[in-house]
Specification:
Distance between the termini: 11 Å
Structural class: mainly alpha
Number of strands: 0
Strand content: under 5%
Order of helices and strands: HH
């Protein structure tokens, strides 16, 4: 199976991961970083999940 079938989704996942990383970095720049802890945590989990999804689609494996 060709990964080309999923290319638009792969691209969207990588873009989402980059935005999540950007948000986490912006949160770290806030005056009260402790208050932003949960937001940063969610951003990092989201970025990881998006990259993982893109990686699986790019492998073009049937699983």
């Amino acid at each position: 199976m060709s990964h080309q079938k999923f290319q638009s989704c792969i691209t969207a996942c990588y873009e989402c991961a980059a935005e999540c990383d950007h948000c986490a970095t912006a949160c770290l720049g806030e005056d009260n970083v402790k208050m932003m802890h949960k937001c940063i945590e969610i951003d990092l989990y989201c970025a990881d999940m998006c990259r993982t999804a893109a990686t699986f689609m790019a492998r073009a494996d049937e699983h």
